[in-house]
Structures
1.
Amino acid sequence: MLEDGIDFCKNVEKLILNDTFDNYIDAVLHLCDDKGIEPFVAARMLSKPIKEKIKKEGQEINLLPRKTRLPIK
């Protein structure tokens, strides 16, 4: 059964808070497998804060390019 976005986000956060998973990427992929939905469908249900956390995780493990920063002196 397909969940709404709020329930899906709550379940992602619950997996993180219960230390079932230590990152959001794995938690979302686990829920996708568990619920039988494609990740691109789940992506539309994620809240902006969770999307930002996934983006940061992706940059940390070099899956996504880092935002270039100008050196400030």
2.
Amino acid sequence: MGSMEHPVFSLSTKPDMRPREYRHGETFIKINPSVNGLATVHDRDVLIYCISQCVAALNEGRQVNRKMKIKAYDLLVATNRQTSGRGYELLKDTLRRLQGTQIETNIKQGGQEKFSVFGLIDRADVVRETRDGRMQEIEITLSDWVFDAIENNHVLTLNRQYFQLRKPIERRLYELARKHCGKQEKWTIYLDTLAKKTGSSSSDKEFKRMISKVIRDNDDQSYIPDYTFSLTGDLLTVRPKRKQMNTFSLAPLNPDTYEEARYHAQGWDIRVLENEWRTWVADKEIQVRNPDANFIKFCKQKGPYKQEELF
């Protein structure tokens, strides 16, 4: 959630060597690049994937730790990246930037505010490679800051379509909408504040042009999931898509229902399944008389998760 709220990741698609500082009230964050540049919005995919693995394990009642092994191919597929030789080389670049980017901040974590200096991952090791040099298995050690967020449940689910967004600014708009708007009727923010939160280095005029184009494109194609955007002067308004709002019209589920759901859909993030189920009910305009029983039936049909289904 901290990385969704604050501009931890660079919007640049080229090596970004500029140190950056962001302040909001008493909160500050300084991001310093390594020789490989700052970690980018697209580099964040690796952290999202690792966090999802940890959440799935916790939902199964398994222990997790900062050091974890993942299959490179599964990561590339899940995050909508190319699986060619070039894709594996780009993944290595991503790991270099994630390890090298240094962050100084007093962002609260686990309910405590403290000064911290850290990288986004402590290290990454290629455990196995094919003969032509392609990574098969990677061992990633998450930083304490990232792992603390997992242990304290300071994470939010993202729509799977997030990984289909190619422009960094589109991803940042979705992240901020997910963090601040959520299920609310609307959320508003002025462009000057939005520019700071996205980490944009564009001029005010260029930033407004860029946001306006994203809004026009999204109005035409509706490719940004879950939310709509409108601009009045310099005020951006974010609203959940109509069907997304309808997904929450069903009554809250009984706490015991979640326990039974975890049994039938082992390994899945139950909150993600709940959102998927509510969206499905709204899309099909199904009249649900017993939400708890209907959700359990949905989870039974889903069954235990498979690795390729994680996203």
3.
Amino acid sequence: MKIIEKLSTYAALIGVIGAIGGGFYTWGQFNTRLDAIESAPSVDLSPLKEKDKELNAKVDSALLYANEYKVDLIDRIAKVEEQIKPTDLTLVFKEIGKIREQIAMLPEPANLKPILEQLQMLEEYGWELEEDVEELSKQVAIVAKENELQSIQIEEVKTLNSNPLGG
């Protein structure tokens, strides 16, 4: 049993040494990568700064242009507001009130029930007529087909009678 305990102790010791060694290896790799990054040349941002200056100049000119139009619009609005004159609408409102009073004095509407009943009867009659027309259309189509069939049969009889060898 002592051999197994010693072997497990040695295995644990080898595991700890391996873990510490792995940590040092990883630390070395990290430092190597960091050195590579630090030794790389930095990115030149001067072209971007020049483009930024150009864009700022364009934005400033656009804002100046917009402000000129804003001032022009404000001046136009002021001129229009000067031309607007207040109007007294009290007479208009009085006339509206008079018309409302006259409407209120009108008699109640007439009894429309008989008219509506007659309209409903006419509508039903219209639907019946439409159904009759559809039925007649079907019957006319049937007769037309019968006539066509009879014409074909007549032609066959004529053809048989004109043939000297026929029936």
